[in-house]
Amino acid sequence: MLAGATKAFEQSYTFDLVGNRLRKIIAQVSTHSLPSGWSAGTVKSDYNARDQLLSTVAGAATTKVGYDANGSLTTRHDGSDQPLFRQGYDLKNRLVEADADGDADADLRLAYDHQEGRVARHTLDGSGAVTASEHYLLDRMNPTGYVNSPPPTRLPAPPPGFRAPPPACGTGESLRAGGGRSRIAGGCAGTGWPGPRASPGGWRIS
Hints:
This protein is mostly beta strands. The chain has strands spanning 9-15, 21-28, 41-47, 53-58, 61-67, 73-78, 83-89, 95-99, 108-112, 118-124, 130-135, 153-154, 196-199, 202-205. The strands form two sheets. The protein has a twelve-stranded antiparallel beta sheet with strand order 1-2-3-4-5-6-7-8-9-10-11-12, with no helix packed on it. It has a two-stranded antiparallel sheet with strand order 13-14. The protein is elongated and about 55 Å long.
């Protein structure tokens, strides 16, 4: 700390025997403001027998965390069990869809090639239509996985009504249901559909 400066807060932590953080305590020690988004108090965390975080309690706010049978994080809920976040995986335990705002509509869909490389990322609106896409050119001889050009390549906006390919059902969670909307349903697995491709004339569906 700089000479003459006054610290605004102190942080302390407690851990269990395997290193899981059980408590984070923030104590305001001066009249100076805390950083934006911070508040004085204690954040408590609980874990299961597999050392997976189950919940955090910060004041009156509780967040609960859920996992699938493979141990992959699938959900976050508030103290009233209202969904905050969900994500789904395919049969190879790869992340394929995510609902970032808890409204049960997929906001993001990911695609992979036959060698497990992530090759596309689609951003979806509430109806399941693609609003933006990024495609990745992979170089298997490069340790980074990408060719020596700035990835990803952002393509023009797809035509109205264009939809990213849905995953097929499997184990875990997915975000696909009837009516053309992407909703939390059963599991999902990659279909091998290569996704939208850009051509000199713009978008086409392969």
